[in-house]
Fold this protein.
Amino acid sequence: MSQSTTFSLGFLGRMPLWQQILIGLGLGVLTGVLFKSNALLLAPIGTLFLNAIKMLIVPLVFVSLVAGITAMSDSAKLGRISVKTIGIYLLTTAFAVSIGLLFGALFSPGEGMNMVASGVQEAKQAPSLVQILVGLVPTNPVAAFAEGNILQIIVFAIALGVSMNLIGEKAAPTVKLFNSLAEVFYKLTDLVMRCAPIGVFALIAGVVASHGIEVLLPLAEVIGVIYLASIAHMLLVYGGLLALLARLSPLRFFKGVAPALAVAFSTSSSAGTLPVSIECARKNLGVSQGVAGFVLPVGATINMDGTAIYQGVLALFIAQAFGVELNGAQYLMIILTATLASVGTAGVPGAGLIMLGLVLTSVGLPLEGVALIAGIDRILDMARTTVNVAGDLMTTTLVGRSENELDQTIYNSDNPQ
Ligand code: ASP
């Protein structure tokens, strides 16, 4: 094992990083429960870690995407990978909404609950499809970088990478530069990740402290159903696809992606987790830089299975709570809008709540539902972001395997980070 697979973080000794992170997560929950609002004193440490990860997102996505595209100079291959990626993303998302609806119907968390909305909260207007499409191309790439507009950065990086491929030899020095930059940013990610156990600990302690049991209890059932549906989706759909389609061990997968899932859980941002996801895909799953650098940034932007599950469960929950009967057409409408809404959801905390408004309006459900959920949304966001990131990594694994861009020796190695 390379020296970076074991870290020395004081008392944690030479334990693999993913175990250290899980311990940080557990201790964080404990600290939040025991010390309540005093645990908020740890917030600056969490913010520091979050800032360090966020610092990496824009440059890392840009250089690794350009390096990834140039590694696939064969344009037929690039096209094939794009089709597979988008296809798997949409398919798993449709599965996710359906699982959400199924669990919502099975457990009926809203039935018989005496819920009174504390006030009407207008859902913010979600952007239309045309707006999203037109906004894809940056008029000024520098502004896109400054604003951290990931979709625009992706489009610019793809255009740049494809142009480099088209001119071949003449682009050789630039290709070399981007490859070298990508290595530099991977190293930087590696360094930031060494602080993950402490960062995750501080972040989670803050979340638990600010969402005391009192806030969670009245809606405990719906929280439970969303967590259950999320776990079922990850185990059945992701585990199933990995085992059946790729003939890879789901256990190894979850072990390899554990650091990314822990960071997703504690930050509630799949865009924020991107540097860690890329690192896990390359180092623990053995996916090539080309595939990981392309599939993951796209996924962090458009693939949100956890968000889709959440919308499925909540649409039913709110219908049950307000005594609205849904018909078959409305169920179909929910599947369609929730899939589209999850594509349009940004990978930042709380984005799914805004999109929930969209799904509710499409089938005429009361928007007060959004206000009802707002208080517990962060707890739900943690679950959905974890699934979102797991889905991106699962797709990366499937695409990598089918393109022969996955090193099974690394995937099956006993010591992931
Ligand atoms: N927070 C989620 C994510 O970053 C998006 C959402 O709010 O649903 O993946």
About this structure: The two ends are 10 Å apart (CA to CA). The longest helix spans residues 75-107. The CA atoms of residues 122 and 367 lie 7 Å apart.
